[in-house]
Amino acid sequence: MPLSGGGAVTVRALRGEDVRRVVEVMLEAFKGTPDERPRARVAKYLVDRCAPDPDQVCLVGVLDGDPVSIASLSFTEEARGFPNGTNGPEAASGSRSIPCPPDAAYLCNVAVDASQRGRGIAKSVLLAAEALVLEMGHDSLWLHVRTSDPVAFGLYQSAGYEVRAREDDVNGGSFLGALFGSRGGDETRDVALMRKTLPSVS
Fold first, then answer.
1. Exposed (0-12), middle (13-18) or buried (19+): which is 105, by Cβ within 10 Å?
2. Separation between Cα atoms, residue 118 and residue 41, nearest integer Å
3. How far is it, in rounded angstroms, from Cα 188 to Cα 172?
4. 127 SS3 class
5. DSSP notation for 38-99
6. Is domain 10-197 given the CATH code 3.50.50.60 in the classification?
7. What per-residue confidence (pLDDT) applies to 82?
8. What is the pLDDT, as a whole number, of residue 5?
9. Could you say which DSSP state residue 18 is in?
10. Strand pairing of 140-146 and 105-112?
């Protein structure tokens, strides 16, 4: 998909050589938010997802050889860190009180390098994720987003995602809080569970 300002992004699976750069993308994207996490935890998350796994994959958007974006996909409850339906602190992603269905395709951790935002990279990565979800045999894609983040929420709304549930999330039960461990605090977070039915490819 052509980008605003020229060029095109290539979307592929995360590789080991991408980790250092993608760590910076994620740290910058979530800095100062309730989802900010230590560098070591973000790095471990990415390193763990470099190994081939049919239940999950991290996609990176590459522009002129530079990984400038990330999106994570999972296809099973276990891959999301909810083994046997548990919603405890070991949960890897998703909201504890409004989780997506256990057998759903789930998207999280979408981030774009600050210097490349506004060019359509997130939309390109989202389209690639949806294509992969269809290829994996799923007909819909689920995600959590903060409705207080107008850019992210607007992206998903404009792409056809619909709110299926909302959570007033207090004291660290966020989707990244579950992933990296809650920081606590008294902030209230408005988290929405969204779903898109994907058009079948004939």
1. buried
2. 28
3. 9
4. helix
5. -HHHHHHHHHHTSS--TTEEEEEEEETTEEEEEEEEE-STTTTT-GGG--STT--SS-SSSP
6. no
7. 52
8. 74
9. G
10. parallel
Report the distance separating Cα 96 and Cα 89, nearest Å. 9
CA distance 42 to 24: 9
Query: Any bridge partners for residue 190, and if so which?
Result: 168
Closest by CA position to 45, among listed 155, 185, 157, 175: 175
Residue where the block lists tokens 């230590």:
38
Show pLDDT as tens, one digit a residue, over the chain (202 residues).
Answer: 667 777 789 999 999 999 999 999 999 999 988 788 999 999 999 999 999 999 999 999 999 999 999 999 999 988 887 544 443 333 334 566 788 898 899 999 999 999 999 999 999 999 999 999 999 999 999 999 988 889 999 999 999 999 999 986 433 444 455 454 444 443 445 889 999 999 876 5
CA gap 188, 173 in Å, rounded? 10
- Three-state SS at 29: helix
DSSP 3-state of 26: helix
Alpha-carbon distance 139 to 201, whole Å?
10
Measure the CA–CA gap between 172 and 122, rounded to whole angstroms: 26
Does the reported pTM lie above 0.85?
Answer: no
